[in-house]
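Structure tokens please, single chain.
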Amino acid sequence: MIIHGPHENLFYDKDLGPILLSDWYHDEYFDIVEKVVGPPGPPPFSDNNLINGKMDYDCSLIPAGGPACTPNAGISKFSFTSGKVHRLRLINSGAEAMQRFSIDGHNMTVIANDFVPVVPYTTNVVTLGIGQRTDVLVKATMPANSAVFMRSNITQKCSTANQPYAVAAIYYEKADQSKTPQSKAQVFDDSKCGNDDLTKTRPLFPFPALQNAATTKTIDITFGPNATNHNL
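Here you go.
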């Protein structure tokens, strides 16, 4: 579902719609929960990383008796038109992973975070925590026969993944879609576990916080083993 705000006044030519970034586990949900809340041990690692539900996987890594695996299952594909501005609605729909999203050879203009319009700023990477959403504008500045990768990397500084790299193909209007893009990845800082610098993000319609709250509550949240050695 896409909701258009009443004061949206942005110029772009094409809306590519939601782009879902998601870590992926081969284990069943309740098996993963049992590992998380069970006796202390290593956390479960995701098996793959997906863009709009797709990514190739090395089926030789599946243990005997494991889930069915389709080799070279394919990646998601998107279309760019040279000279046009495209809107991408990024969503981290995963369970555990922090994602860093980029497009080879292109900058992005961030226009909204979590449905809040922000003063536009330009970047080559967008960081999304679990459940976070970021809207970006991307101008297709390459020739009409170009093809590049969009990428989403699970940052290994603060997430657990066996295969952290996801790619999808972007084909310009005259590109040969039978060929795999040969573009080079962006270089960005992946040294910290956290969102992009908040000083870049200013609400487009700021409003002051209340000076004196009517009620203030402090809630301490802890995570650790209980009397039966289960994590809660």
